[in-house]
Amino acid sequence: MTELISIKDAPKHVDEEVKMHVWMTDKRSSGKIMFLQLRDGTAFFQGVVLKKNVSEEVFEQAKKLHPEASMYITGTIHKDERSQFGYEIQISNIDVVTNTEGYPIGNKDHGIDFLLDHRHLWLRSKRPFAIMQIRNQAFKAIVDFFEQEGFIKFDAPILMQSAPEGTTELFHIDYFNTDAYLSQSGQLYAEVGAEAFGKVFTFGPTFRAEESKTRRHLTEFWMMEPEMAWMHQDESLDVQERLLQFVTKRILDNCEYELKILGRDPEKLRPTTEGHFPRISYDDAVKMLQDAGRDFKWGDDFGAPDEAYISEQYDRPVFIMNYPTAIKPFYMKKNPDNPKEYLCADVLAPEGYGEIIGGSERESDYETLKKQIEEAGLNEKDYEWYLDLRKYGSVPHSGFGIGFERYLGWICKLDHIREAVPFPRMINRLQP
Ligand code: 4AD
């Protein structure tokens, strides 16, 4: 019996006759030979139909195929050094399932709005294919990393009454006549998890009603938020460094084909020398900007161009540590050596990509945290359960959040992170 295989497995079946179910993305013909561009969700490759190798009926049928026609094919796998995938199939039979006309996405340069309007179809194209495969590998690698480090996955709710990252960017919901919000961060719940299980991570959709139309803002994005009991900020930075190294290595090892499709030079993701990610203070970063003649005042938050400038100075991710308290959220722990700043850090990705991780040590003292909640203008009642964590068995603890699409934006060298998620949500986009 001829084996049914996927395109990805073709290299294991050279010179064998195989069967596949595929879609045709494009077709070229020159008289007695036809080249079908095929995909099956695992890879893209070429099928060659030679008039002399197939029946008259099959050849005539192949001539009539339109993009996105679906079919079973039978044929023999050959090496094809010239192609991106490296293999092709010499087709001996085609069994058409559906043939359709008028597929809206072609080889021409469609504008981004057209492509986003057709995201439900665009996802079948090569570039989104490569990005989504890398997203999948990155997700699996993150899960493997945390498992290896003794974390458990701990789910935070999506509907909540707290506003961990400030009240200006909340999506409000009328929840049976009370106010509720879509989650801005699962962190406060991850802290519950850390006190119950030691080391946990959440992974879920996160919502920010940010009116920012930049290449790195989505209104719905995915965030992975690890939280570690008994861990101080410097140890949390070690975890972040190991995590980024682990996941990036996995992508370099497993996604060579996808990076090639994206035209992403893997060498840019490999630091040229051994060594840790640099750790510089907010003060150092401010000085760096000012020395470069940029208009930046101590106490301001970095804008995207500032972060781009700083991150371009390094060949690997860089930690910016200890921001002024006024520009960071209430739950962070103040630096005992300088109460004007928090024990926190953001990670900036190289090549100008800017912030991909934000994290901190958390305030673990009951009275101090209560005061910080008050000073942030939040309603203490909504945080009673959170304060309980400091009332009973409080320990030093730290955590961070990695913006999944931001990380992928850097790995895949995207112009805009909207390409890093299957169905991007932005101020003016809720469809498809
Ligand atoms: O710095 P943020 O706001 O930190 C938190 O939410 C903390 N509670 C995390 C924690 O300590 N557990 O967001 C964390 C990361 C950012 O570094 C960025 O990568 C990403 O989330 N992010 C966004 N990604 C896409 N679109 C947006 N609008 C984003 N806002 C933040």
TrEMBL record:
One matching Pfam family: tRNA_anti-codon
The keyword DNA-binding belongs to this UniProt entry's keyword annotation: no
PANTHER family: ASPARAGINE--TRNA LIGASE, MITOCHONDRIAL-RELATED (PTHR22594:SF34), ASPARTYL/LYSYL-TRNA SYNTHETASE (PTHR22594)
Name of this chain's protein: Asparagine--tRNA ligase
Any one of the GO CC terms: cytoplasm
Reactions it catalyzes: tRNA(Asn) + L-asparagine + ATP = L-asparaginyl-tRNA(Asn) + AMP + diphosphate + H(+)
Family listed: Belongs to the class-II aminoacyl-tRNA synthetase family.
Main location as per UniProt: cytoplasm
Native source species: Lactobacillus rodentium
Domain Aminoacyl-transfer RNA synthetases class-II family profile intervals: 134-422
Cross-referenced InterPro entries: Aa-tRNA-synt_II, aa-tRNA-synth_II, aa-tRNA-synth_II/BPL/LPL, Asn-tRNA-ligase, Asp/Asn-tRNA-synth_IIb, NA-bd_OB-fold, NA-bd_OB_tRNA
Subcellular location: Cytoplasm
Signal peptide feature range: none
Matching HAMAP family: Asn_tRNA_synth
Keyword Cell cycle carried by entry: no
Source organism, top-level taxon: Bacteria
Keywords assigned: Aminoacyl-tRNA synthetase, ATP-binding, Cytoplasm, Ligase, Nucleotide-binding, Protein biosynthesis
E.C. no: 6.1.1.22
Subunit relationships: Homodimer.
Record-linked SUPFAM superfamilies: Class II aaRS and biotin synthetases (SSF55681), Nucleic acid-binding proteins (SSF50249)
Biological process per Gene Ontology, one example term: asparaginyl-tRNA aminoacylation
Lineage: Bacteria, Bacillati, Bacillota, Bacilli, Lactobacillales
Molecular function GO labels: asparagine-tRNA ligase activity; ATP binding; catalytic activity, acting on a protein; nucleic acid binding; transferase activity
